[in-house]
Fold this protein.
Amino acid sequence: MSSLTPVALACEYLEHPLAIERPDPRLSWRSDSAARGARQTAYRVVVAKTGADLLAGRSLLWDSGRIESDASAHIHYAGTPLASFQRAAWRVQVWDETGVASPWSAVAGWAMGILKREEWRGQWIHSPAQVSSNSPYFRRSFSLDKPVTDARLYATARGIFLAWINGRPVSDEQFAPGWTDYAKRLLYRCHDVTALVNDSGAAGERVLSAQINDGWYKGPVGWEGKAHIWGGRCELLMLLRLEHADGTVTWIVSDDQWRTANSPVLSSTFLKGELYDGGAEPIGWDRAGFDAKGWHKVNATAIGDAPILQAHQGPPVRRLSEVKPVARWQARPGSWIFDLGENIAGRVRIRLRAPAGTTIRLRHGEMVTPDRQLYVDNLRTATSIDVFTAAGTGEEIWEPRFTFHGFQYVEVAGWPGEPPLDAITGIVLGSDCPAAGSFTCSDPMIDKLYGNIVRTQRANYLEVPTDCPQRDERLGWTGDAQAYIRTAICSRDIAAFFTKWLQDLRDAQNADGTFPNIAPQVPGLGGVWGLERGDAAWADAGTICPLTMWRCYADKDILAAMFPAMVKWVEYCDRTAIEGINIRYHRDKQFIVFGDWLQVDCWTPPEVIMTAFYAHGAKLVAEAAEVLGKQAEATRFRELHEKVKKAFQREFVKADGTILGKRTDDETQTIYLLALHFDLVPAALRAAAVEKLVACIAARDWHLSTGFVGLPYLLPVLSANGRTDVAYRLLNTTTYPSWLYPITQGATTIWERWNGWKKEEGPADPGMNSYSHYAYGACGEWLFSDVAGIDLLEPGFKRMRIRPRIGGGLTRAEATHRCIHGEIRSSWTHAQGALTLVVTVPPNTSAEIWIPTSDTASLREAGKPWPTPARHEPGYAVIETGAGTYVFTAAFSTTAATTSAKSASAK
Ligand code: BGC
């Protein structure tokens, strides 16, 4: 029997995608196996037009034949060219380390999208001026005279849309088709609606219906309240492709046959909220038999040549979970506050019986004041109020359709009588990135911190990686995205999400090579300087994110797609630098300087940050070039990196290892973190620089002072340089500023500011004070890589290192991470001088496991002595293994662990 069973088949990271546009989609699988050393030595992929053909072995589109290879991800389809709309079914067989073949996997599939512009049919449709709702309804009824075997709906909008067939939603997606720079690119989604089309029998009338809303396209985006950024007219484009048993196809497309009318959504925007009149719902409008004579004819216009129409490559926004209120109190006569117990991005669903015309007002906020009133100052212009007017038809259930808020508390006014606790339910919205990891340890505060990190990520990975979900920003801030991406990967599979966003980032790059501060760009936002040209660390998302994708997902294609843009950006830095020093700040005030944003009582000079990121960018481009086999570029950018590194040392690094900017004597934690993490310190001065970093921390009585830029590197740099003791000390600190301080103040999410809310004093600066901002959660990576000890040594975790760094008073920690090969697990506990470490290494990978013991003789695996370790490191016995689950036990001493934490240097 084979030790491997191929499972989790995916195409372009997605399970059964319906709109693939590249001719050579990448296929991936994982192998299930509990066997030690399980390893793939060969694979065979077979693709056919249908599952039945595949199983019968006929009409094959591709048979890779047996390929001697251990690759199980990103295998390019190389069969018969595929046409638009074509479906493909596939399965895979693998051979294990002993050459035994696995059974065939289950059948998976994908379908091609619309590959050529001329294959689009139909017209853009919009409502005439008589329709006043900003969320109008559209309908088209049609009849069929023969059964449908395959029905797929392709849909996009200038705005956002919902669609139904015979009154049933075509999907559970929210805010489709998502957000892009609409001037350049509009995305579409495809849904298999065969069951919906057929649910009323083989023949007869059906109704395809939709509703569109302003969304990002026409609604207000950003703090200046500007709307109509991409256009002033919402439009819809739909193609329903109905294939019959005889192979013929019927098309129902958006065109002048459609009718439109006001909907009960009187108005709805992301920032202000939704106004809904239940009494205005035209009953039965979305089903057969409805008399639409009073409805208006739509206006229809040609599809035209621009912008690009492209399938959405990322996960949709969905309702991810529901939250029940934990408390409720009367805030004022007639107004009640519900506490959801956690801060979420989403909205609420209400359930009530009320006389017709009863108006319920829902106001959302993240905090309540000491006198238990809703606190909304920090929302700025995002008023976040939903209003529902009852139809009076018995029990009514309502949830807004086209808005979302960032909130924990809801103030409910207008309820007839006293609303019960279950009158409202919190609906969590976010991009549906698959779960990929977990973390827990013996300290409940750190568990809370991890929970807050995960919750904040969920609230801010909503179509694009945003800064916050509540106030009038909710923008794709590039600096936040790059600071946090590595942590994000620990707990969620964000590969498809970032594949889409990196397209947004490429679209947002300026002609001069600069990447912006936000992607998608929002033309005109940001005052005189605008946000088009990004500050260091913001613009550097353009190099850092793709390299992170390469390292964590072994995704070469994303590197190839980003490479020209990465080169342009670093060339820009080079062009504008003077003698290797990037001083755009001083000579070119064409952009806003954020510096080490929200650093605490210090100032990291921008020229140091800029030059450090410039050097780092050159190094990342060289690494990408190397991976892509572009030797000349690899050499060119390696040399550039060396040049900038020398300049950095010449200008900023003093003979004793002190690092200072040009015009200040302020040593900051971030200066040392950037210099050490980006390897800009001469080897001989590294130890001195580490000492100075620790001195900077000690000078603040062992508190951090970094802003968004330096923070992600703080714990990793300390650990990599033998100061895990300081890293744990910072992690365990509960006084301001620290990670745990907000938790002592009741935080259920990561805050934008360490002192966002103090129980005694209330809010910090309400002008900029989000309670759901993931940047400071970038310490999450270290919980995985150092506390539990899971880190990669080769791209895609093909080879990994399990090296728990035990300290900080913890007696137990456990993390799991599902990489492209399967689930990795590291779980340790220690008590009374005995350590247990349980490690799972997924099939088809290998690991270096560092077992924290100084007493190799005591080392056992499943009770038996382990053959000699491959090597010893201070405080560790290091072994090399392949796949499998291993239960190690060994003698363990906390004093030895602390000493070794201090002495072990980066490996
Ligand atoms: C955002 C940030 C962003 C910053 C730029 C803020 O208003 O919320 O997260 O990175 O501006 O410094």
Confidence is low (pLDDT under 50) at residues 902-907. The longest strand covers residues 335-353.
